[in-house]
Specification:
With 320 residues, this protein is α+β, with helices and mostly antiparallel strands. It is built from 8 helices and 15 strands. It has 2 domains: 90 residues, NE0471 N-terminal domain-like; 201 residues, 4-Layer Sandwich (Double-stranded beta-helix), CATH 3.60.130.10. Helices cover 25% and strands 20% of the residues. A 3-stranded antiparallel beta sheet has the order 1-2-3. A 3-stranded antiparallel beta sheet has the order 4-5-6. The N and C termini lie far apart (55 Å). Bound molecules: fe (ii) ion. Fe (ii) ion binds next to loops.
Length: 320
């Protein structure tokens, strides 16, 4: 505690953690994050006052920290509240809570050290489902074995997690070679790495895939860590990375019964500048006829990204 020092400044409360870290908190941010039952429902945790109720010129009248590392504040409107010092430090260091998401692991070509889960275990043990979901958040995929070779098997897996979203293709769609295909997945062509359905709004969360049978030579399932490739691009070619985070193409899929369209950058960042989503779908992407300079930057960035996806990262995963 002794190396934590509070300092009221005109702009808010400055907290010094020793000599190495300090952070300035806005008075209204502190005020609206009060856990006082009058301002936040004790059971639900939701804030009660409306945004229009807050005074913009709220000020901190006094600030002290006790031996239990609790920061005690008094505001100009007469309100008092307390914060554990650890909570303020965590908010200062990470603006986006990651207690649910955890840290992502970017993997490279040849990555094989991923956990495998058994369907029977998942059906009977909720802690195993939680572990599988944590793996999903960490690596972007989870590998499950033990499914029956029949059309209903995937549902027994998805039921362990939550409801399956129905789309224009139903809840379950066969990916197989058919006479009159409406999608490249239904032809005998090999598919290059891609992300699914960037034209759909809202986009897919996670997709369950099961290989029921393979009657051809080849047909291996290849996985690529799109987030990992994006990070590789960022360090290898910052200009290319920047172009793909700012220039926005459209994505469109059309068939007899549905036309789907959405837009977004190939590499979407969140407010912290971290990769939040990758869109990579050569067959559905349509960049508008932008200026020569803009398209030069976009095409160069996209080619570099595609080369990295093709050459650097694919790892073969047996999905049966
Ligand atoms: Fe796909």
């Amino acid at each position: 505690m002794s190396d934590i020092r509070l300092e009221i400044q005109p702009q808010g409360l400055m907290i010094h953690w020793g000599e190495t870290f300090n952070y300035l908190f806005h008075p209204l941010w502190l005020r609206e994050n009060s856990n006082d039952p009058e301002y936040r429902d004790e059971n639900i945790g939701a804030r009660i006052p409306q945004a229009a109720d807050h005074s913009l010129d709220i000020a901190i009248e006094s600030a002290e920290i006790d031996t239990a590392c609790t920061v005690k504040l008094a505001f100009s409107d007469g309100h008092h509240c307390e914060f554990p010092e650890k909570r303020l430090r965590a908010c200062a260091e990470k603006h986006r809570p990651d207690d649910l998401i955890g840290d992502k692991v970017f993997w490279q070509r040849g990555f094989q050290d991923y956990p495998t889960y058994q369907l029977e275990t998942l059906k009977n043990d909720e802690s195993a489902v939680l572990a599988m979901l944590a793996t999903l958040a960490k690596y972007g995929f989870a590998h499950v074995q033990g499914l029956a070779i029949d059309d209903g098997a995937l549902k027994s897996l998805s039921d362990c997690v939550g409801p399956m979203r129905e789309t224009n293709w139903g809840t379950l769609a066969d990916v197989k070679n058919i006479p009159n295909p409406y999608d490249l997945t239904m032809t005998a062509r090999s598919l290059a790495p891609h992300t699914d359905n960037p034209y759909r709004l809202p986009g897919p969360g996670y997709i369950f895939m099961q290989c029921l049978r393979n009657n051809a030579v080849g047909g291996e399932s290849l996985m690529v860590d799109g987030f990992g490739v994006a990070m590789t691009l960022k360090s290898a070619d910052p200009e290319a990375f920047e172009s793909l985070t700012t220039i926005v193409p459209n994505f469109r899929h059309a068939e007899d019964s549905a036309v789907l369209e959405d837009s977004g950058p190939l590499i979407e960042l969140n407010e912290a500048g971290e990769v939040a989503r990758v869109r990579f779908s050569n067959r559905t992407e349509q960049v508008p006829p932008l200026s020569t300079d803009t398209l030069n930057r976009y095409y160069r960035g996209r080619k570099k990204f595609a080369e990295l996806i093709r050459l650097c990262n694919p790892t073969s995963v047996t999905l049966i």
